[in-house]
């Protein structure tokens, strides 16, 4: 059966791949060494009470030891829940309690001081991950069921409190295999992991690269310059990031000569940024739309000159996509509605049980995103259901306003939100990330007046040096009033 420990064991046993680099960075290992270290940690986790169906929480940067624990937890039939050190202590403890994790580990990069501090806030002990054991590997454990949970993923938290979802070995690795087939990323020997592996984009693509026998270069902490150094080498490479990271990567002075495939997700990639990437000489730019709940939904390989904002392409292999109205029925092409996916199942809510697992395989599901189907069948995203505003009785989708404001060359990013109004019920406030300029507010108002109906125009503009982002680099839409 297809499981992560089983795949790594096979790669470690093969003469062709055993001595191939699996992980590069501050603690490089071959596939044989990764397998040895992972199986050596099985006894460590068992001593902490880890058994089948339980959860191991790991507070971590992008470090080799995380994959050792993924092997060890999987070998025991348990799941790994990586957590970002960018979360506050209170947020980490809340997630650990919510998941009822039986063991909590902080990696060396996080440090003993924080592990001790977290232990003082929780009924659970956070221990510092011991150094990799020397000597021989532990005995090959019994291979877990492929439908057992291997990874507990948290939602990005960009719109509220993170939720927990369970992903099985089979679903994680099957989805990775299909992505490799469609996008062709397995042709590139090295995946540069800049995205945090405590989040879905970083974790899933790193696991997929390892499972295909490829090498992952870990950038331990978010550092675009360090990632760019890997991407200027002689080895053909690819990376998967959110749009904010694309901005940061392409601000580097030298060209990213080794970067042959850039995969972007997490938020729609603006047309201007897409063009900048393609003009910089990046051979291939792939964007996909997905979520923690749904997995991968659609994808597209962008071409120069396509100016459709919010474009995220056609359904991934094995999935169907539709857009429905308030009555749950599909709407005509071009009409905005709720985006739904069926097929190619991925995650279920943690604790959902067998019935949720089975239903997830066939039901039409939505993560709350809005979109429309273009004339050629491609999906165009249009914000979220809970973002919609009602202004003077008229429905307004903030993304429509945001797309107009992003056309101004000074605007790096924008979030449009509602504010209470006695007369209209709601008005709009546009929070704009840009360099302060006394003319900017007037120019943005003029741009909206030329492009939008009166009720769709923001009542107020707030210009900021930087908008709030979560630990994955995605924009937060839930924040207090900023002035």
From TrEMBL:
The keyword Ligase applies. Residues 400-474 form the AMP-binding enzyme C-terminal domain. GO terms for molecular function: ligase activity. InterPro entries: AMP-bd_C, AMP-bd_C_sf, AMP-binding_CS, AMP-dep_synth/lig_dom, ANL_N_sf. PROSITE patterns: AMP_BINDING. Belongs to the ATP-dependent AMP-binding enzyme family. This is 2-succinylbenzoate-CoA ligase. It comes from Asanoa iriomotensis.
